[in-house]
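ingest -> validate -> predict -> emit
validate: passed (alphabet ok, no gaps, 66 aa)
predict: started
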Amino acid sequence: MPRLGFFYVPNGIILREFLPTTDGSNFEIPRLLKPLAPYRDQLTIVSGLANAEGDARDAAAARIHG
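emit:
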């Protein structure tokens, strides 16, 4: 059964502890994603998606409405 999950962190996150530093299927699991290590072959991590039109005040609305 396919699944899709998103992490929404409205108060921020330490990205260097969350995002892999290497690309491809053999990426190094960062510290905050270690609990997901058993599922690494089923993970696709996408980063760099930013809403250039939004700011902190309307971040939630921008995510809901596109």
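Residues 59-65 form the longest helix (7 residues).
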